[in-house]
Design goal:
- The structure holds 2 protein chains of 2 kinds.
- Chain A is mainly α.
- Chain A folds into 2 domains: 1-70, no CATH class; 71-338, no CATH class.
- Helices cover 74% and strands 4% of the residues of chain A.
- In chain A, helix 10 runs antiparallel to helix 11 (253-277).
- The radius of gyration of chain A is 25 Å and the shape is elongated.
- The two termini of chain A are 30 Å apart.
- Chain B has a 3-stranded antiparallel beta sheet.
- The N and C termini of chain B lie far apart (33 Å).
- The chains are: A mainly alpha, B alpha+beta.
């Protein structure tokens, strides 16, 4: 029954915590009844291959778990691009990425408006639409590929393949005992959101229009952003590596906390350097004929960025403290369970 | 699979979807748990895979059409489902609708 238990644990890792135990208990009973029936029919225990056939018939753990979700929303244009199984995670990633890019655009427009610059409706509509198209395009593209892979090859999984199902039994037992696992779909969402943000950051570095919109003719990013660009990319990459590792090893809860403490501390250093710079946006053509309005707008943008950086610093510190606390708590839990 | 094959498969699934709910509700006039329900449906020629039936039972329960309880049988805890009072009412209406559709279709087929 080892294969069955592993399968059920994997299905469970994709289910919402509130329903997990109940669904797994019921699924387990139904599967065991089927196995008992077949064993009675054959008058012998099922071989591993026969057990595998039963699991294959149940379906990929992700699809099985997805069918139990109450949220049946999906995205379809002609055909279904993103099904109900991964739709909630798609929405989460899209909202997160759009939230960040819309905040940046809003900041720029608020500053321009406050400084008395004339902003037309088409400027605003164009800037937001551009962000929407970029984020929607990339995130939808990635998730629809994931969906295509799931629906095109529903049987392309192996119950015995270590990376998909098999975890060392002692780790499973410990994780189950402590009730702690990193949800796999949280890791997948984190990985995709970071990857899209990485692409956006790189594109924004090359084309300031992505950040400033029509104001790109007036402003450009100050040199300090160039200095923190590589460390920022590395921080995002580290987050992706952590998500990828936790996807393969959901039981490494302490690793996640430790990695996030490291990432949070590094982010804090980057924020500190940024705050120290005191100038984050400069005029695109300072030597030219620059109006007083543009200088005033630049000061307002810089003031807004200063406040945002302080806010970001406070959030990073709060998250850092939360992860340190989690790390200490899990360390105490591990010591107690060893004792 | 050809385009025609795909089209047929989609239409067939659409046709079956509503009938499955009717079959499940009818079968649950008597109490059953997931696996025995699947078996009894299959015995009546209504094959339904686990991945469809078990989540469907929960959905019907959340809609108030079924009630369930965990109970021990043969030394194991199983979740038994049966029609709720609302479920009985809905089933009666659905069966009447089904019979009406069946009569209409037969009439159309006979020309």
């Amino acid at each position: 029954m080892e294969l069955i238990d592993r399968y059920l644990k994997t299905v469970g890792s994709y289910l919402p915590v509130a329903q997990r135990d109940d669904i797994i208990k019921e699924l387990s009973e139904n599967m065991r009844s089927e196995i008992e029936d077949k064993e009675a029919e054959l008058s012998r225990p099922l071989t591993e291959a026969e057990q595998e056939a039963i699991l294959k018939k149940q379906g990929h753990p992700l699809l099985v778990a997805g069918r139990y979700r109450q949220d049946r929303r999906s995205m379809a244009f002609g055909r279904q691009w993103i099904g109900p199984v991964i739709f909630p995670f798609y929405i989460k990633v899209l909202t997160f990425n759009l939230g960040i890019s819309f905040t940046v655009v809003t900041m720029v427009f608020v500053a321009l408006f406050a400084s008395g610059q004339s902003i037309t409706f088409s400027d605003v509509a164009f800037a937001y639409s551009l962000q929407l198209i970029i984020q929607f395009g990339i995130v939808t593209g990635i998730f629809s590929l994931l969906e295509k892979n799931l629906t095109k090859y529903p049987d392309k999984w192996d119950p015995r393949k270590p990376n998909q199902l098999k975890y060392p039994e002692f780790l499973e037992a410990k994780a189950a005992k402590n009730g702690r696992r990193v949800p796999k779909l949280e890791s997948i969402s984190q990985f995709i959101a970071s990857a899209v943000f990485l692409v956006w950051l790189r594109a924004a570095q090359k084309s300031p229009f992505l950040i400033f919109g029509p104001a790109a003719a007036i402003f450009r990013l100050a040199p300090v952003w160039q200095q923190v660009f590589v460390p920022s990319m590395l921080i995002i990459l580290l987050g992706m590596v952590q998500a990828a590792i936790n996807l393969l090893r959901p039981d490494w809860v302490r690793f996640r906390s430790a990695a996030r403490v490291g990432i949070g501390a590094t982010t804090l250093v980057v924020v500190y350097f940024l705050v120290k710079a005191r100038e984050w946006v400069v005029l695109a053509n300072p030597a030219g004929n620059v109006s007083g309005d543009h200088r005033h707008a630049m000061e307002i943008v810089n003031q807004t960025i200063f406040c945002s950086l302080l806010g970001a610093g406070a959030i990073v510190i709060a998250l850092l403290l939360r992860d340190v606390w989690r790390l200490v708590r899990t360390e105490h839990g591990a010591v107690a369970s060893r004792a | 699979m050809t385009f025609d094959g795909n089209l047929f498969e989609n239409l067939r699934l659409e046709l079956r979807r509503g009938s499955l709910v009717l079959a499940v509700l009818t079968q649950l006039r008597g109490e059953q748990y997931g696996y025995t329900l699947r078996k009894s449906l299959a015995e009546h020629g209504m094959e339904i895979d686990e991945g469809t039936l078990y989540p469907l039972l929960r959905r019907l329960e959340s809609q108030g059409l079924l009630v369930s309880e965990w109970r021990e049988e043969e030394k194991r805890n199983k979740r038994f489902y049966k029609l709720s009072s609302d479920g009985k009412l809905i089933l009666k209406q659905l069966l009447a609708e089904w019979k009406s559709i069946d009569a209409s279709l037969n009439g159309i087929l006979k020309g």
